[in-house]
Specification:
The chain is of the alpha/beta class. Helix 13 links the parallel strand 11 and strand 12. The radius of gyration is 25 Å and the shape is globular.
Length: about 525
């Protein structure tokens, strides 16, 4: 493979401005992530620890193999909303007893680990990751069930979560539940529907209805231990498979369960020796545009991510606004589609063909999104941009090899669809902090609405208020700026997290390893391509 060359001037003013902007955004990102790690705050953390309990993140750390990474999923879920940052749930991918697992942990310092609407959304995404990538799931449970004031928005997705647990079991994807504390009402179904259940003695409390509800419903006076204690469930009801003496013992048992699963990956790729990129990944902060309206050469980004900075470009002189080609990342062979400008007919057709080729060779695809959309105008409409764009979307929609998406700039309109946005089910999708996502750019959207209002006034024979229009345009533009912000998107789990650009190669390495738990197999069947 050819080694990508670099022409970056690290002394230029543009480089400096981009770098300064990214460092400021990364600082803010790290501040928000630090807030997530604080749980429910000092008061509730102190109360939790005084009860002799481990924090949720301590439980995860003890569960993971020593010195292995933990790739957190949607850590800023619920950002900017009335709900707790992180959605009261911690989710991610880590290695336990040599097996890559999806791990979730209730955050008991936030309303006793109760699930809110954003937590339910995040839990649903977690189950998708298990299913799509054939990965065992370990639930570290301590939850009061649904956050009752919000039951109307939790009830349906919560029920779906229980269904998905049983489906993973049917698919022979192991489900493991370690119960550390109260697991009430809906929370009781998590251990009830798991393949393996460990309960902590004198800690776990699992019941459909607690003592107050039992008193109200059937007038029975009963204490928590008799009703749903770990000892009772381990000796009488059979809901628990293992009785742990304490939390650390529960984690030990969890690791032993994973160790005896006889788990093996089904995916195969012809891996090669891993090579670090030739160029410093830190330089990506000065190369990528902090202002998504300004273009940058995506090949300079690829040169700092792929193994040995080697890239075999496919159709390098045709449809040049979409870069396509083959590379390796952490030794895994991948196909790459990366935006280098707006999508024209040629680049759309090229992308569709390349996706077909990757499917024919069972090669995972990575999409690097920085796209304002498909080209518009009479010349391009007459040239068939709709049918050519549809070919790309058709190929993306029907491709069956794993897709990984990195949002490294703008993501507007149907360009988001053609480059495997969230609606097209990439196995994983992460964003850089400069990322912006919307139907179209804020200025364009506000301008379009202004034109529509002006035309409506002309048709009605009414005067057009320029001052009012300017005020409305400013208001609409501000609204779209807010709603296209990377943190607004990640709060709603439109991606799996915002990452420091310098961590891109590591994140891709972890996710590539994860997708190989399942079979890597392309398709030969697509919908009708309008020729």
């Amino acid at each position: 493979m050819e080694v990508l060359r670099t022409n970056v001037d690290t002394r230029s003013e543009t480089y400096r401005q981009n770098r300064d902007g990214f460092l400021e955004q990364i600082k803010f990102l790290n501040e928000q992530l630090a807030l997530v790690r604080e749980g429910g705050g000092a008061k509730y953390v102190k109360r939790h620890v005084e009860r002799g309990k481990l924090m949720a993140r301590e439980r995860i750390e003890l569960l993971l193999d020593r010195d292995s990474p933990f790739l957190e999923i949607a850590p800023l879920c619920a950002w900017g909303t009335e709900f707790a940052l992180g959605g009261s749930v911690i989710s991610g991918i880590g290695v336990v007893s040599g097996v890559e697992c999806v791990i979730t942990a209730n955050e008991p310092t936030i309303k006793g680990g109760s699930i809110n609407p954003f937590g339910a959304l995040k839990t649903g995404r977690t189950m998708e990751i298990c299913a799509q990538n054939r990965m065992p799931i370990i639930n570290l449970t301590e939850s009061g069930g649904a956050d009752l004031p919000f039951q109307s928005t939790i009830f349906v997705p919560g029920g779906r979560g229980f269904r998905e647990l049983t489906r993973r079991s049917r698919e022979r994807i192991p489900t493991i539940c370690l119960v550390f504390g109260s697991s009430t009402a809906g929370g009781a179904y998590v251990p009830g529907m798991s393949d393996y259940v460990v309960m902590v003695k004198n800690g776990a409390k699992v019941f459909l209805g607690g003592p107050p509800l039992v008193k109200m419903a059937i007038h029975e006076d009963v204490d928590e231990e008799t009703l749903g204690g770990a000892d009772m469930h381990s000796r009488v009801s059979g809901v628990s498979d293992y009785l742990a003496q304490d939390e650390r013992d529960a984690i030990r048992l969890g690791r032993e369960i994973v160790a005896q699963l006889n788990w093996r990956k089904l995916g195969w790729s012809k891996r090669i020796a891993v090579e670090e990129p030739l160029y410093d990944p830190d330089e990506m902060l000065g190369i990528a545009s902090i202002d998504v309206r300004k273009p940058f050469d995506v090949k300079e980004i690829l040169a700092r991510i792929v193994d040995g900075s080697r890239f075999h470009e496919f159709k390098p002189t045709y449809g040049t606004t979409l870069v396509t080609g083959y590379a390796h990342i952490h030794g895994y062979p991948v196909g790459i589609l990366a935006n280098n400008g707006i999508l024209f007919s040629e680049s759309s057709e090229k992308g569709a063909q390349f996706i077909q080729l990757c499917n024919s060779t069972n090669t995972p695809i990575i999409f690097f999104q920085n796209i304002t959309g498909f080209m518009v105008g009479s010349r391009y409409e007459q040239g068939g941009i709709i049918k050519d764009g549809a070919k790309l979307i058709n190929a993306v929609s029907n491709s069956t090899v794993p897709h990984l998406t990195m949002m490294i700039g703008a993501s507007y309109g149907a360009g988001n669809y053609g480059m495997a946005g969230r609606a097209y089910d990439p196995r994983f999708i992460f964003s850089w902090p400069n990322h912006r996502i919307a139907v179209m750019g804020p200025e364009q959207l506000a301008g379009v609405l202004s034109i529509v209002r002006r035309q409506a006034a002309e048709r009605a024979g009414q005067p057009f208020d320029e001052q009012e229009d300017a005020m409305i345009r400013q208001m609409v533009q501000g609204q779209i700026e807010k709603e296209s912000y990377a943190f607004f998107a990640t709060a709603r789990v439109w991606d799996d997290g915002i990452i420091d650009p310098r961590d891109t190669r590591t994140v891709l390495g972890i996710t590539l390893s994860a997708v190989h738990n399942g079979v890597i197999e392309g398709t030969s069947g697509y919908g009708v391509f309008r020729m």
